[in-house]
Amino acid sequence: MSKIRVTKEFTFEMAHALLGYDGACKFIHGHSYGLSVTVIGEPVLEKESPKLGMVIDFGDLKRIVRNNVVNVFDHALVLNSETPKNSFNQSMDIFHQVIFVDYQPTSENLVIDFANRIKQDLPPNLQLHSIKLRETATSFAEWYAGDQNV
């Protein structure tokens, strides 16, 4: 049977700051991110299945990505966990959605994190093929399963 790639696209808003960076991105700033998630698998062949001919129902892929990435990071401020906590007052309501990550929150590192989050909820008959995270209209990072040492 043929392997088919299926892609779903998402958008979300997120702010971040790059700890120790030598340019303007060391300051808190935000982006309108575009996220493309591609899975690969074989279409369902069982004639009695309501998913006949599908690799995955787009709605199921949407739920997986929203639950693991979009709903987590949308309208959040993402900071390196080594950011000095005394540099802002977390008790203020505007800092309700602060996520501290154990990495520098660059697009490159975010796609690795997103890949790990999405892979954990994919059905066993599917593989995550790629993720593309567009930070601006002209800048993006990509993760491909085939490039990983597994």
Descriptive report:
The structure is a single chain. The protein has a 6-stranded mixed sheet. It is of the alpha/beta class. It has helices spanning 58-73, 107-119, and strands at residues 4-16, 29-41, 76-80, 98-101, 127-136, 139-144. It has a single domain (4-147), classed as Tetrahydropterin Synthase, Chain A (2-Layer Sandwich), CATH 3.30.479. Helix content is 19%, strand content 34%. The chain has 2 helices and 6 strands, in the order E-E-H-E-E-H-E-E.
Task: Describe the structure in brief.
This protein is 19% helix and 34% strand. By secondary structure, it is an alpha/beta fold. The longest helix is centred in the middle third of the chain and has 16 residues, at 58-73.
Topology:
Layout (H helix, E strand, L loop, with lengths): L3 E13 L12 E13 L16 H16 L2 E5 L17 E4 L5 H13 L7 E10 L2 E6 L6
Parallel strand pairs: 1-3, 3-4
Antiparallel strand pairs: 1-2, 2-5, 5-6
What structural class is derived from the secondary structure elements?
alpha/beta
Helical proportion? 10-25%
- Strand order, main sheet: write it out: 4-3-1-2-5-6
- Compute the number of helices: 2
The outline comes out as: elongated
CATH class: Alpha Beta
Measured distance between first and last alpha carbons = 24 Å
- When the domains are counted, the total is 1
Low-confidence stretches: none
- CATH homologous superfamily caption: 6-pyruvoyl tetrahydropterin synthase/QueD
Determine Rg (CA atoms, Å): 18 Å
Named CATH architecture: 2-Layer Sandwich
Q: Average pLDDT, to the nearest integer?
A: 93
Number of strands: 6
CATH topology: Tetrahydropterin Synthase, Chain A
Query: How is the biggest beta sheet arranged?
Result: 6 strands, mixed
Element string (H = helix, E = strand) = EEHEEHEE
How much β-strand is present in the residues?
A: 25-35%
